[in-house]
Structure formats: C-alpha cells, structure tokens
UniProtKB/TrEMBL annotation:
It comes from Demequina litoralis. CDD domains: OAT_like (cd00610). One of its GO terms (molecular function) is transaminase activity. Belongs to the class-III pyridoxal-phosphate-dependent aminotransferase family. Keywords: Aminotransferase, Pyridoxal phosphate, Transferase. InterPro entries: Aminotrans_3 (IPR005814), Aminotrans_3_PPA_site (IPR049704), PyrdxlP-dep_Trfase (IPR015424), PyrdxlP-dep_Trfase_major (IPR015421), PyrdxlP-dep_Trfase_small (IPR015422). Pfam families: Aminotran_3. This is Aspartate aminotransferase family protein. The lineage of its organism: Bacteria, Bacillati, Actinomycetota, Actinomycetes, Micrococcales.
C-alpha cells in the first residue's frame, strides 16, 4: 500500500486513535502529548502518513546506527526467525556465542565474556551487581549530568532530573561532578585545569565517602543525552588510576556511544583506557530487536567460575536480537563504518559547526567527536546564560520548540534536550544528506538568533 493510499483509507487516524486510546508512553503526561504516527523508514529517513519525510538526526534514541531497514540486518532477523526464533539462555546457541566472541574480540584482551541483557538499564544494573559481589563493597559513584537507565539502581545512578521523582531507590549511590569546561564546576579555564581539578574532586569524594565502602564508579565515556561531554585528555586515564589505587571497579557505560558513534568500537578506546566492565545496548544491533549487555574482564569473569552469578533474564542472548548483532559486525567491516564516522565527523561536521559559533549569536559552544555533537544554545555568549533554563518545560521551553519546529518543517527530525540540540544521525548517512540536514539546522538557528536579538 502506498503512503497516499494509507492516508486515504484513514490508516493514520486509526494509528493515532489506538495510540491515544491505549498506549501509555515513556516519561510523559499522557494527556499532553501527540505522538507523530510514523508510516515507515529507510536509511537515514522516516516518514509520516502524509508523506512528510524526515532526516533522522537523532537516530531515534541514538540507537539506529545502521539506519532504518538495513537489508543485512533485516535479512539476519528473517533467517534466524526461520531457523530458531527463540531458545532459553541456559542452552548454548550459535548466534549468541558468535556475537559474544566478536564483542570480546573488539573489546580487547582484558575481556573474556559477555552477559546479555534486554537493554541498557539492565546492563548497568547487572554490571553494578557484579562489581558489588567481587569487591564486597556496596556504594557506587556516578556523575551529575548522566543517564544510566530506568530500573532501580540505574535510575539511582542517573544524574539528571529523571531520577528526582523516583527517589529513594538504591540508597547506595553518590554523585560527583565530571569535567564540563564550558560550565566548569571547578572554575577551570583550560582543559588541563579541568582534568586536574575534576580528578582532585573525584579523589576527595572517594576519600570522604570511604574507599572501603565504594565498589564501583560508573561513567558514560562520552556523556550522551546530558550534553555530549567529551572528557578532556587524561581524565579517564586518571579515573582508571584512582580505581586501581582504591580497589574500585571501573564501569564504562557505552550504551549510547558503543558500536561506532565516536568512530571506535568502544569510545574508551579513543582515550587509551581499559575499564573493568563495559555496558552496551543500542548500536549493537541498531535496536532492531532489544539487546544490551556487559562485557566482562577476565578477572571479574573468573570470580564467577566457582560461584554462581545471582542474576538472569528469560531473554538473555535472544537469538532474534543476536543475529542482527552478528550482521552488524559484518556491515561495519565491509563498509568501513568506523573510518567513515571519523571522516565525516572531522571533515564535514566539525568545520560547519565551528563556523556557527562565529555566525550565530545563539550558539555558545559546539563540541563532539565522530558523529556525535552538541550545539549549546545561549541567550548571551558573554554570560553563557542558557537559551532555556535547566529542565525547562512548557512555556519556559518555548524557544527550543521554535528551533525544533523550524527543523521539522524543513525535513529534519532534531534531537533536542534542555538548551541543546545534538547531531547524532545514523552512521550510514550519506555526505549529501548530512550536509542537507546541517543546512536546515543552520537556518533553524537563524530563527533562534531572531528571538534573542
Ligand atoms: C548512556 C545510557 N545508559 C543507559 C541507557 C538506558 O538504556 P535502555 O533505555 O536501553 O534501558 C541509556 C538510554 O538512553 C543511555 O543513553
């Protein structure tokens, strides 16, 4: 059925009515939302029932690394569905084992095993569980300005307002400030000052909270939804050193940045750092079927050789999810995905965005790496006052609404969070599409310039 026929037969109205009547949506006041009925997608675009096409500049929720309807991933799912649609986790299974082996291969020789989960939150939940069991220490440190998921410990680790209504949850989490030079908590003016002071602050936090009580530190390698905060040189190496010194497990949350977003298999590899546990989800199979997991170091895996790990999931390593994961590795290798992410990020995105700091009064800072960038919108470049307040909603968030509408009206679906827009398109986006989308964002920023003039 064509898009036009769908519209004529009232398919859109039916989708909208079923949704509004019966689907309870994430993070929302149910009566205040109006979700767009989506009719389909291909590559870097999706479209609605009226035929409006959108370049997906947020890769859905930064999971759609290989784009919509990638033929290799779809075929892998179809083939797996025909051979064995499901098998419970206590059996050995070909695609589950192959995916685990391939993940360990790219993670590096420190690692030996993968515990598969249904998504990112339960990956973090189980990584913390492992760290607590191997150290015998319960407390966990995590950053302000972070998101780690929606289950009890994961939402407690989270350092953004999504945690507030869920407190108290896991009472053994303490937050600290990570590096963020543009709005430095340490009054730093250079990257090296920020690195040194952020590490001093983290060490003070460890000492004052009691190293003998802290089992793990959980850090998004590049903070995602809370700002695309790329750690300055030396910061993650310093975290590694503190973890070693104080007997703490270093958990790298790579749910958003793992599998190519920064041009590396895992973003820590760009910082020359090896954590003890790496959590992943999203990009492992572009989210075609829910899948996440924990990559486990040899040392931590060995701790469970003779002792049972007290955790499990009915769908751990589900074959329909693992098959497109294996196909993802093939596509990355064949199509040079990591190389093209680095190339497009440095050659196309960086110079265009850096130009906007000069050309747009509303652009305070741009930052990022690979195909993962943030544009921070401000009212005033001097004071750095954000375009909208922290956690703004309703009327307070209206200026960002103006920006988002301008993008959508011109065929780009933007990722908007607080006073920022993020550039996180599928890693398969063509250079023409990327330049077209950036031009739309450039024009939408001019509308914001007019608002603050
Ligand atoms: C860094 C990070 N960790 C964890 C999660 C939670 O993943 P999920 O929604 O699959 O549970 C997310 C989701 O956006 C994330 O960005």
């Amino acid at each position: 059925m064509t898009i036009e026929n769908d519209a004529m037969t009232g398919a859109e109205a039916r989708v909208r009515a079923d949704d509004r009547g019966h689907v309870f949506h994430s993070w929302s006041a149910q009566g205040l939302i109006d979700p767009l009925p989506v009719a389909g997608g291909a590559g870097s675009e999706f479209w609605d029932y009226e035929g409006n096409r959108y370049l997906d500049f947020g890769s859905q929720l930064v999971n759609l690394n290989l784009g919509h309807q990638h033929p290799d991933l779809v075929e892998a799912i179809e083939k797996q569905a025909r051979s064995l649609a499901t098998i419970q986790p206590s059996f050995a299974n070909d695609v589950r084992g192959e995916l685990a082996r391939r993940i360990v291969d790219v993670a590096g020789e420190t690692f030996s095993k993968v515990f598969f989960t249904n998504g990112g939150a339960d990956a973090n939940e189980n990584a913390v569980r492992m760290a607590r069991l191997v150290t015998g220490k319960r407390k966990v440190l995590a950053m302000y300005r972070s998101y780690h998921g929606n289950t009890t410990t994961a939402i407690s680790l989270t350092g953004d307002p999504r945690r507030w209504p869920n407190e108290p949850a896991d009472g053994s989490v303490v937050h600290f400030f990570g590096p963020y030079l543009y709005r430095s908590a340490f009054h730093a003016e250079t990257e090296s000052e920020e690195t040194r002071r952020a590490l001093e602050h983290l060490e003070q936090t460890i000492v004052l909270e009691g190293a003998s009580t802290i089992g793990a530190i959980v850090i998004e390698t590049v903070v995602g939804t809370n700002g695309v905060l790329v750690p300055p040189p030396g910061y993650l190496a310093g975290v590694r050193e503190l973890c070693d010194r104080y007997g703490i497990v270093y958990i790298a949350d790579e749910v958003m940045v793992g599998f190519g977003r920064t041009g590396e298999w895992f973003a820590v590899q760009g910082h020359g750092v090896t954590p003890d546990l790496i959590t992943f989800a999203k990009g492992v199979n572009s989210g075609y079927v829910p899948l996440g997991g924990v990559v486990i170091s040899k040392e931590i895996a060995a701790a469970f050789d003779e002792r049972a790990f007290p955790g499990g999931l009915t769908y751990s390593g589900h074959p329909l999810a693992c098959a497109p994961g294996v196909a993802t590795f093939e596509v990355f290798r064949r199509d040079g995905i990591l190389e093209r992410v680095k190339d497009l990020g440095e050659r196309v995105v960086r110079p265009i965005l850096e130009g906007w700091v000069e050309s747009h009064p509303c652009v305070g800072e741009v930052r990022g790496t690979g195909l993962f960038w943030a544009i921070e919108l401000v009212r005033d470049k001097e004071t750095r006052e954000p375009l909208v307040p922290f956690n703004a909603a309703g009327k307070d968030a209206a200026p960002m609404g103006v920006f988002a509408k301008a993008c959508k009206d011109s065929g780009v679906w933007p990722f908007v969070h607080f006073n920022r827009t993020h550039i996180a398109p599928p890693l398969v986006i063509t250079e023409d599409e990327l330049r077209r989308g950036l031009k739309v964002i450039d024009e939408a920023l001019s509308e914001v310039d007019a608002l603050i003039a």
